[in-house]
């Protein structure tokens, strides 16, 4: 049995054991990375840790730390009320506002994880406050980010268009952008309907619904400036103003959030390092909130994501990913090879870098694209969409950020929801993208 096949079997076993034995999948994945790396792939510790997602670790810790501080001092509460006022109290519009914001951010040049890191904590806090499905809100944020992700001036768009130019393939920047935008918009609309978006209030709301576990106690307690106003309290009363007014710690936190956006978008600084630096500065002035926030970092989620991605890194180091790609590209039926490449791109990207997968798979498609049997524009668009739309997976950077950012949820249940939803996307979208963009010979 080849080492590549063994590594795939071990990956399946990790999923099976984590599901049936309720063991943290990240811990199992670290063990698998050690066993397969040392015994099968003959990798040393440096080779095994080459796949450790240090940047994602810092993003998860930094962003959840900063927004835990914002929740502790009531800043997210203030932002939620501001969002409600912005849309005239129409709660049903908020998921679409979040979709649009993340779409605009990525379209103008923000990397997708950075946009999600900025928007997801606010969106998920709103979802908890107004009893909106966290899956709905998380999906709207991620699909919004991917919807704008292939504009001609975006990071993804620039990378893919550069690969196409380097491989001397026909390209169409607008088609690529619109393909991603339309697919993500359609998926967002479906999720909105399926997850109860049509039942959300369309009229001005004066009081939120349940905010999740512990909400009843929180809303029945007198407002002290750090929590929500009592349920049903009319807007403008002293309790409401205390709950949603601006205090020095909230002003400082808002300035920190603005600084995070500017650091990421204007200066292209790392979102995780910027967030954890800002959180540390706030903790110096308000240590009580800082201590509480540090305890609320989602460490089980960090272990889960980092463990799985470390094992995927071992697969990349030992050539399993290239092995699967080459096996598909050798198939003599171009349309079938194109469909399988779309599925491989979706499946692997659910656990690994979308950009890296696109950079590997597009060149693999060059031999049969050169023959003219498959339209290059359609194939590139289908591969790009398939490799990015699956970022709702809890093992991808965007999905992990959504999972870590959700307050007042059963994380195991939310993780399973994201995993099932990601699985549905992996199963359906590549086939649809292939049928619409590749089979007609677009390009």
UniProtKB/TrEMBL annotation:
InterPro entries: CitT-rel, MatC_N. Residues 211-244 are annotated as: Disordered. This is Citrate transporter. Pfam families: MatC_N (PF07158). Residues 211-241 have a biased composition (Low complexity). Keywords: Membrane, Transmembrane, Transmembrane helix. It comes from the Bacteria. Residues 1-149 form the Dicarboxylate carrier MatC N-terminal domain. The chain crosses the membrane at residues 47-70, 82-101, 107-128, 135-156, 176-200, 254-285, 297-314, 335-362, 374-406, 418-437.
């Amino acid at each position: 049995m080849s080492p590549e096949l063994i590594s795939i079997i071990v990956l399946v076993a990790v999923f099976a054991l984590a599901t049936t034995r309720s063991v943290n999948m990240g811990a199992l994945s670290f063990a698998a990375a050690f066993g397969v790396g040392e015994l099968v792939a003959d990798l040393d510790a440096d080779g095994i840790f080459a796949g450790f997602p240090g940047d994602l670790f810092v993003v998860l810790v930094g962003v959840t730390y900063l927004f835990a501080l914002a929740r502790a001092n009531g800043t997210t509460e203030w932002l939620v009320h501001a969002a409600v006022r912005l849309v005239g109290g129409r709660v049903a519009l908020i998921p679409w506002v979040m979709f649009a914001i993340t779409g605009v951010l990525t379209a103008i040049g923000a990397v997708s994880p950075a946009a999600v890191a900025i928007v997801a904590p606010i969106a998920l806090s709103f979802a908890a406050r107004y009893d909106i499905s966290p899956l709905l809100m998380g999906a709207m944020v991620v699909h919004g980010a991917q919807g704008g992700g292939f504009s001609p001036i975006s990071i993804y768009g620039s990378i893919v268009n550069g690969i196409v130019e380097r491989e001397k393939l026909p390209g169409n920047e607008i088609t690529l952008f619109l393909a991603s935008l339309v697919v993500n918009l359609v998926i967002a609309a479906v999720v909105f309907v399926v997850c109860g978006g049509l039942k959300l209030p369309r009229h001005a709301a004066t009081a939120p619904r349940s905010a999740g576990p512990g909400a009843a106690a929180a809303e029945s307690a007198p407002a002290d400036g750090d929590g929500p106003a009592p349920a049903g309290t009319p807007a403008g009363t002293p309790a409401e103003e205390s709950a949603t007014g601006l205090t020095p710690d909230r002003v400082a936190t808002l300035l920190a959030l603005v600084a995070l956006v500017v650091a990421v978008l204007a200066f292209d600084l790392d979102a995780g390092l910027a967030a954890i630096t800002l959180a540390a500065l706030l903790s110096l002035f308000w240590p009580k909130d800082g201590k509480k926030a540090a305890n609320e970092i989602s460490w089980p989620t960090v272990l889960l994501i980092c463990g799985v991605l470390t094992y995927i890194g071992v697969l990349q180091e030992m050539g399993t990913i290239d092995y699967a790609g080459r096996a598909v590209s050798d198939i003599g039926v171009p349309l079938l090879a194109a469909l399988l490449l779309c599925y491989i791109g979706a499946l692997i990207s659910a656990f690994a870098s979308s950009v890296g997968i696109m950079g590997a798979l597009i060149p693999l498609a060059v031999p049969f694209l050169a023959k003219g049997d498959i339209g290059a524009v359609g194939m590139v668009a289908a591969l790009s969409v398939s490799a990015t739309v699956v970022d709702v997976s809890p093992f991808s950077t965007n999905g992990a950020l959504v999972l870590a950012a959700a307050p007042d949820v059963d994380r195991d249940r939310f993780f399973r929801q994201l995993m099932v939803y990601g699985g549905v996307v992996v199963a359906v979208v590549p086939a649809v993208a292939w049928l619409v963009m590749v089979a007609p010979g677009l390009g």
